[in-house]
Design a protein that fits this description.
By secondary structure, this protein is mostly helical. It has a single domain, classed as Hypothetical protein af1432, CATH 1.10.3210.10.
Length: 156
């Protein structure tokens, strides 16, 4: 595990709420906790390449780790997929603020990480890094499922 993730997000990673996410299927190819870790690692990779010099690493790590934490809420998790795209950022932001003390920058990044589904785009580098990393990792998860399905149907 990346040392920055451990240093800046240890309380999140060790929380009961985050551990619950290990059992919640996400994007059909992974779980919420693993997806959140992958998003965090990819966002840090982009950050380390120097494209976002004014970015606070703590805010980045915490926003990435918490961006889908709302999926741990049964009402969100059990909703129709289309509604989940709208409801989980709001619930994730509430949990991030109430349980993990997320600041305004982290909350904004979490709230708007589903742009363009949500009409308002993120307003910070952290929000754009999270959005880019989330989409990259989500497409990777979905592509793995599609690849497996096509391989299954090719069998004779």
């Amino acid at each position: 595990m990346n040392l920055m993730i451990k240093r800046e997000g240890e309380d999140i990673l060790e929380s009961e709420r985050f551990r619950k996410c290990e059992g919640i299927v996400h994007h059909k190819g992974t779980n919420v906790a693993r997806h959140s870790m992958e998003v965090t690692e990819y966002a840090l990779n982009l950050y380390e390449k120097g494209h976002y010099p004014d970015t606070d690493v703590r805010d980045l790590v915490r926003a990435c780790l918490l961006h889908d934490i709302g999926m741990s809420d049964g009402d969100v998790r059990d909703s129709v997929s289309f509604l989940k795209a709208y409801s989980h950022p709001r619930r994730s932001a509430e949990i991030a603020r109430e349980e993990f003390g997320a600041n305004a920058v982290q909350v904004n990044a979490i709230l708007y990480h589903m742009w363009p589904i949500c009409v308002i785009p993120p307003s910070s580098h952290i929000g754009w890094l999270l959005l880019r990393a989330d989409k990259h990792c989500a497409w990777g998860d979905v592509a793995g499922v599609i690849k497996g399905a096509t391989a299954f149907f090719r069998k004779e």
